[in-house]
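Two folds, back to back.
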Amino acid sequence: MSRYKYKACDQQGNVQKGIIEAKALPDVLSQLKAQGFYPISISRQKNFKPANPVSSASRKPRRIPSSEMAQFCYQLATLLAAGVPLIGSLDAIISQLKNKEFQRVLKEIRDNVGKGMALSNAMSQYPKIFTMLFISLIKAGEESGNLDAILVDYTKFLETKEEMHKEIKNAMVYPVFLLVMAVAVVIFLMVVILPKFINILNDANVKLPLPTYI
């Protein structure tokens, strides 16, 4: 990894300076494009040794529900498609989140992106929250410049997955319900109805087979 110092502007003409860690210059261009910036100048810093990233995953954040992840992906895709820079998009989403754990993680990701780290690299520090599939798709979106479209596709994937889980759960509930009802009916017959029949037949001097009394 190398460190690149850049100067870029957004669609409104606002100039921003910063540093990005990347393998090569094309990766820097991809990251700037994904964040909604147009490069003015880029220079590689010499004698840079990347430090081992300190992962906040040591705090062991809990996995985020699929519904919340789908909402996050959809919101981020919408903001990016509207031309909002990546950091601004993350800030907007963070300000609306009610899940404090997810909010904390996104703040740390936002800070790392602000320091020049690619979004995919920043997210990869939280494997409990972001799957390898998701991180790979984000990386592909950064490199192709189609991050918003990929996020929309992943949102649809999560929604379909959640719907299938609900259908499977509902399909399993009905057989269990039938089994419980069947057991309840058998118990009711054995405890309430059958003794009454036995008494009636005994009063009528009808001899019952031995298994009836067991």
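---
second:
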Amino acid sequence: MKQIQVFVRHCFYSPNTELRGHSRPSWFDKAAVFQNLLDTTDHNLADIHVVYDEHFGKLEETFLSKFENVTVINAGNEAQSFLKTLELVFSYDFDDETIIYLLEDDYLHKPNWSPILLEAFTLPVEYASLYDHLDKYIGKQYRTLSSQIFATKSCHWRTSPSTTNTYASRYLRLKEDKAIHKHYSESAQKGVSRDHEKFVYLGKSGRRLVTSIPGYSTQCDDMQSPTYDWSVLVGKA
């Protein structure tokens, strides 16, 4: 079994795209983003599992139809798809030290992200994200934010109070925190997991989250990781 197990959630259509702050850049293309994941993953380190929500469209109608490792679910919104993905993750008998990377379908990655993610877990942390969320730099609520900075072999990291529902953790920690992860999706508002509140709670419970600086991934919306032109990764620069 590879050190990293990626569970990437895909759907035919996501109601989340209608939320404020989630408009797509002109170069966004789901197929290109998925190809980027395949191209940038070190397949000696990571396995990729696709979880496809068929609620708004069948798998056969998508570019994923030829990808072999796909689990089809019927959820209809982000929170339910996350809960079903958790069920799938916990159905495996992974080693406790395995890194589980829970990923959404609108994240681009830089080359070499796989070993960088492993470096995060050489630190005294429980959770890690490769997304250097822009809100930590421009959000009024973060003007006085204080972070601890770490350095690993290839990257700097900062502690962060929260991130999105794309993140990584050791399998053991994910199992220990299972009830928390479920609660903040089961209590979702308008079908969207309360990811910010979840990580704030985890932080208060002693769980430490770090994000890479600069980002090795970005969500493809209005809050992209800064200092990099992400369009080059889909050939749209």
